[in-house]
Amino acid sequence: MNDRLKQRVLQAAEEALSRQQYVSPIDIFIGMHLLQPVHVEDWRKGKVPYLEQVIQGNLNKITFSMKCFHAWTKEKGLKPSPTVYLARTSGPKRELRFSKSGDLKIEQFYRTHFISSTLSEIKQKKLQEKLDKPLELVVFRTIQNSQCSQCKKELHKGSFLFMEAGQPLCLCCANLNDLEYLPRGNAQLTRLAKKESSKSIVVVEFSRSCKRYERQGILVEKEALKKAELEISELD
Ligand SMILES: [Zn+2]
C-alpha cells in the first residue's frame, strides 16, 4: 500500500513541477485527489479551521505522503521558499493554519514552495516574489442594486460591496469602513497611499462590454491617504 501511495505522491509532484516550475504540499494533495480546490478556497477564506481537516485520508497517510514528498524535493535539489499564507478575510491579518497539531515544524513545511533549480537565478527570484505576494482582497463596485446580507442595507448601483463566503456585505459589516476610496489615475498618489496604508484593497467593477472585471481604484486608510497627499504637495 505504501509503495502505491509513494508512487502517487511522486507523480503528483513531477506533474506540478513541470507545469509551474515549483511545487507545494497543497499541489501534492490536489494532484493526488485528496484535496478539492474548492475546499482550499474555503480554507483561504477562513471557513475551515485548518487545512488537514479537508484533506481526505487519515493523519498517517498525510504524514507518509509528506515524508515521500520531502525526500523527493531533496533528491531533485529543489530550492525551498517559505511563503506566508494569509486568510482572505476582511478582518485583521491572520496566518492560515494547516495542521491539526499546529506544530511549528509541520506548519513551516506546509508553507514552503519548492522551486525548480533549473530556473535561472533571476527567474527563481521572480517566482519567489510572486509566491510571497499575499493574495489581494477585492471590493466590488456594483453595477446593479444589491443588498447587504447582514444589515440588509440597500446597496445602490455604484456602491461598494465585499463578498464573504459568497454573500455580499456592505463596507460597514465587512469592517472596512475606515477606508477611503482613491480612484485610479494618479499613479504616484496611489503608490504612496498604498505604502502608507497597512491595508489596501483593490476596487473592481464588471465591464459589460469587455465581459471582465476592471480595476477602478483602491481603498486605503484615510490617514494614509492624507499623508500621501501631504507628501506629494511637499514635493511640488
Ligand atoms: Zn451591512
What structural category arises from helix and sheet content? alpha+beta
Mean pLDDT over the residues: 90
Number of helices: 8
Report how far apart the termini are: 71 Å
In helices, the fraction of residues equals: 40-55%
Strand order of the largest sheet: 8-7-4-10-11-9
Number of domains: 2
Bound molecules: zinc ion
Parts with pLDDT < 50 across at least 5 consecutive residues: none
Output the radius of gyration: 21 Å
> The biggest beta sheet, please?
6 strands, mixed
H/E element string?
A: HEHHHEHEHEEEEEEHEEH
What global shape is seen?
globular
Structure summary, number of beta strands: 11
* Beta-strand fraction estimate: 15-25%
Topology:
Elements: H1 2-20, E1 22-23, H2 25-31, H3 37-44, H4 59-76, E2 79-82, H5 104-110, E3 112-115, H6 121-132, E4 138-141, E5 146-147, E6 154-155, E7 160-164, E8 167-169, E9 179-183, H7 187-196, E10 200-207, E11 212-221, H8 222-235
Helix pairs in contact: 1-2, 1-4, 7-8
The protein binds zinc ion (ZN).
List keywords for this structure.
8 helices, three-stranded antiparallel sheet, 236 residues, alpha+beta, six-stranded mixed sheet, binds zinc ion
Explain this structure.
The chain is of the alpha+beta class and 236 residues long. The chain folds into two domains: 2-132, no CATH class; 138-235, no CATH class. It has helices at residues 2-20, 25-31, 37-44, 59-76, 104-110, 121-132, 187-196, 222-235, and strands at residues 22-23, 79-82, 112-115, 138-141, 146-147, 154-155, 160-164, 167-169, 179-183, 200-207, 212-221. It has a six-stranded mixed β-sheet. Strands 1-3-2 form a three-stranded antiparallel β-sheet. Strand 7 and strand 8 (167-169) form a beta hairpin. Helix 7 packs across helix 8. The protein starts with a helix and ends with a helix. The model has no long low-confidence stretch (mean pLDDT 90). It binds zinc ion. The site of zinc ion has 8 residues, from loops.
